[in-house]
């Protein structure tokens, strides 16, 4: 090795993912979820070696349940990036399984460096909507931690154990090899791992190669996978399924985040959620909760005017927030929130109100012109749950009545669209209501 190349290697081996212990302080009465939504455990599906049925069979299967997986990709084996680009666009993680699938342990530092860096760079060149920040060791042979951690903040091995809520070693996170080479060949055996994760409160990672007869190592039957994923979907209130990278992000953020209440009065609370991690990588939302402030019957949670995903569970309000993105305001007053990409918020129209009448919730609005209004309801995740269109009655009031059970809990966003025949654009106003208890 020349003097020059040694100097270069020393420079790139300085880990840029700093793991210095942060000052983590959580003000009372806030709590940060061990897992998103205060679920009990986490589960990740990882697919190695670019086996053809991963894109053809597995990704469509997981898409049916809106579940995201990780595809650990050997970059020199990629014949077309199109399928991986499509999977990335659907939210799946494209991560590294090195350039040539060589066992890294014991190889020269320069060879390890090439395999780890060049595979990451190839992925980042081709997959541009996400960063490649995790890898899996070929043949489960661990590489140099110093070199691996200079490119990746988490790396996967396969020692066949469920990790605790914080993995013992981020540069060798365990997984279970599924399929014909081991004991995880049936849906029951995979379901058992999901149950073990729930019982332990930890993180279970499955490692899958071939599916059916695609020629991949240790194949598993697609029917087994399908049955298992259906079972896991039934556990979604307690089991969080996400990519290897996002679960690892959540762990780092949850373990380093601080929650600080800045001010509070009868009608609003302002707080900060921060960490000292690299925000360009650690950009996943953590779940924070606190009791609903005394006397509040409705709430909105916003950050820089944008509504955060929030819900009421029992006496608690729970919300998802990406650290380091500005003050968060909890407000007891009804707050207007702009839809989607629109940055301006508009106030609720004068006289707009909601009322419970027997088995329905009626929205009323005085209309001075002879216009038609469309009223749409959305849940806290932005999914439309109902819509009605109505004209004003003789007294100038428009009323839309929705079944009461739509409002059983949580925040419902009401979007009013005034339909004016002579205007090219509809005027939309949004209003956030909390219907925690309607009797
Ligand atoms: Zn492999």
- The CATH superfamily label of the largest domain reads Glycoside hydrolase/deacetylase
Report mean pLDDT, rounded to a whole number. 84
Q: How large is the count of helical segments? A: 8
DSSP strand content: 25-35%
What does the radius of gyration come to? Answer: 25 Å
Biggest pleated sheet: 6 strands, parallel
The total strand number stands at 24
CATH architecture of the largest domain: Alpha-Beta Barrel
**Which CATH class of the largest domain?**
Alpha Beta
- What general outline do the C-alpha atoms trace? globular
Q: List the ions, cofactors and other small molecules found in this model.
A: zinc ion
Q: Point out poorly predicted stretches.
A: 1-19, 335-346, 420-426, 430-439
Please name the CATH topology of the largest domain.
TIM Barrel
The helix fraction, in percent, is: 10-25%
